[in-house]
Amino acid sequence: MISHLQSCEALVLRHTNYGESDVILSLFISDYGLQKGFAKSARKSRKRFSAVLDPFTQAIFQWKPGRGHFWWLQDAELLTSRIGLRADLQRLALASYGVELVELMLDEGQPHPAVFELLCCFLDFLERGGDIFSAKLLFELRLIYLLGYMPHLLHCSECLKIFDGELIRFDAIRGGSLCLSCAGSAGLAVGLGTVGSLARSLNVGHKQFDGFSFGQKTLQEANLILQQVLQQVLPREPKSMQFLS
Prior knowledge:
Elements: E1 6-18, E2 22-29, E3 33-39, H1 46-49, E4 58-65, E5 70-80, H2 89-105, H3 113-127, H4 132-146, E6 168-171, E7 176-179, H5 180-183, E8 188-190, H6 192-201, H7 216-233, H8 240-244
Parallel strand pairs: 3-5
Antiparallel strand pairs: 1-2, 1-4, 2-3, 4-5, 6-7, 6-8
Helix pairs in contact: 2-3, 2-4, 3-4, 4-7, 6-7
């Protein structure tokens, strides 16, 4: 059977050298999800692949179905290289962390156009010099939300009481925010203002990163909340966390 050449836009997440000149690319595609592509002689062919092998690069790839889940990559047209991310160590670390979170939280071949848009906009925001702390908060929050792992924020996850200015606690294992009566001494003490900021942030489209400003207390408490949630859903700690730290 003859396999017809197909094409799609893809984000390069990482690459692995194979043999003397071949490359295996880990790709993220809006309509196909996570995919592996085999680029034969890619390190020798400047005409076909030289500009599209680095992480965070976005390109139009031409491909044919290969063995198993692999795609045979035939050619590529560069859309954006995001080379600026590789010039700043802190932004490189955060971009790598974002990519790894997506790889850990999505199954191979699982299409998710909104997560694809989120990751691309996150990388673009970092490259143009956006605030790294708000970028990390918004990316984690939206990824959790888009994949269906969002905890309860503005009401108690057990008695469903709506909060109205009182002190609250947060416990991801028990579903999110807790009133003091339900929480007892368990959970993390957080401000109602912090969970309110997280809830309001979700009212803005997942592609927008500009225009946000979070106070230091909100950033600190939100980081603890989101790390609790991620610990519950991730199969392991991201390797890039040490680099990011």
